[in-house]
């Protein structure tokens, strides 16, 4: 019924247009700060600007747009306040149905003729924002145009999130609406790379699968089906996707049930309260409490990681089963590497890259496979550059020298870690404005910095940001970091890759005055102890 009402609204809004209308389906943008609102299409005419959008959230959760919502023309600088809404009343809480999606239409005044890029913004400072919305016919100049069309058998799937495989959907992601179980999108990019589709409903529940395909210069047909709760993707279109399909099918055939027996044993131990140690259970209970402060939570996370590193989260019975699972995982890993070696291709390169970003320092077998089969092959491809960087960087462990890099400060001045850390005990703080735990940890270092900054201690911060430094600058101002902070914008300098944490928001490294790493991700207490003993 809602879809019918919105269709009628669109008809009435455009029926009196006296000039040819222009429809921009799934307009592209430079960045957005929300997954709860998406612009599906924009209709332009001399009488109105119509945005057809959707709210997305968990069932029974609400989403709202305030009455100060507007669009801003980048060329004219003019603001266009919202004039009317259909399917939703501005300022009210809109509760989500079981589908997790509600369509709506927003009406604005007609745009100035020179406005080819607009920004969408709520009136409040922290409201929904979508920047750099392109209204041109084909403003994107890319080597690859991949037309995606697909179907899903999940009747409750209202949208897919599209992102590059291995990247966090922060500000650079696409929301693809699903209508009558069908979806489509035109993807433009410069390299054939692996992209992931994620069921938006599942992503908002924090329990989801990545459905991968290769963006190649072709039409790609995708069929998403389910075997129980686990989705399966079938891809047609292009030689690379044929290889990826073969890889997925063989992997499913060999390993689909690989963990069934160990999972059953783990479940049995858990139900008998024999899986986790008492120490670990108490720690997890503390983490779940509402009265646990961010500082306490940070210390508990460090303690949890320590227990897991020394295999003290499980009981002896639990560790025995976990060892079986680790052995199965090693066999799957070996099979994946062998497949990549025997199928020299972009999908093969992608397999190695994906394994590398999730493996930390345990990547000798991946580096060996890369050097044996792919070194020098497609040398300009982003995957080749990343794997070459990993292969040449060496491990990041206590006792090894830090890896040098250069990055700009907020004024654009290039600086190197070696020059900033020379002759000083240094805490290298790799963080991000969107990483809450990173910022809690950084704030706890401030008193130590103030106490020891004149005694030979310094902190070098590097923020991993997307597109601009606005959020980084706000975070620094709010948290009060007194030390220098450099910028890693869009992973330009591959700093996270060099430190083998490309799948993480951040990490900290305590470095002695000779440039040797003393500790990786030390707690603030451990940093304090080291400074007290050495400065």
Count of separate DSSP helical elements: 15
Which runs of at least 5 residues are low in confidence (pLDDT < 50)? 1-9, 14-18
Radius of gyration: 26 Å
The beta-strand count equals 27
Residues in β-strands, percent: 25-35%
Structural class: alpha+beta
Q: What integer is the average pLDDT?
A: 90
Largest sheet, order of strands side by side? 1-3-4-10-8
Overall morphology: globular
Largest sheet: 5 strands, antiparallel
Helix content: 25-40%
- N- to C-terminal distance: 71 Å
Short overview:
The protein has 535 residues and is of the alpha+beta class.
Can you walk me through this structure?
Strand 24 (457-465), helix 13 and strand 25 form a beta-alpha-beta unit. Helix 5 runs antiparallel to helix 6 and helix 7 (316-342) runs parallel beside helix 9 (364-373). The strands form seven sheets. A five-stranded antiparallel β-sheet has the order 1-3-4-10-8, with helices on one face. It starts with a helix and ends with a helix. Mean pLDDT is 90; it is low at 1-9 and 14-18. It contains 15 helices and 27 strands. 34% of the residues lie in helices and 27% in strands. With 535 residues, it is an alpha+beta fold. The longest helix has 27 residues, at 316-342.
Q: How are the SSEs placed, and which strands pair?
A:
Elements: H1 2-14, E1 22-25, E2 31-32, E3 37-44, E4 49-56, E5 62-63, E6 70-73, E7 79-81, E8 84-86, E9 94-95, E10 101-108, E11 117-121, E12 129-134, E13 144-152, E14 159-164, E15 174-177, E16 182-189, E17 194-199, H2 200-204, E18 211-214, E19 219-227, E20 230-236, H3 239-255, H4 260-271, H5 278-288, H6 294-309, H7 316-342, H8 346-357, H9 364-373, H10 382-393, E21 406-408, E22 414-416, H11 417-421, E23 425-431, H12 436-452, E24 457-465, H13 470-479, E25 484-489, H14 495-498, E26 507-511, E27 517-520, H15 524-534
Parallel strand pairs: 13-19, 23-24, 24-25
Antiparallel strand pairs: 1-3, 2-12, 3-4, 4-10, 5-9, 6-7, 6-11, 8-10, 11-12, 13-16, 14-15, 14-17, 17-18, 19-20, 21-22, 23-26, 26-27
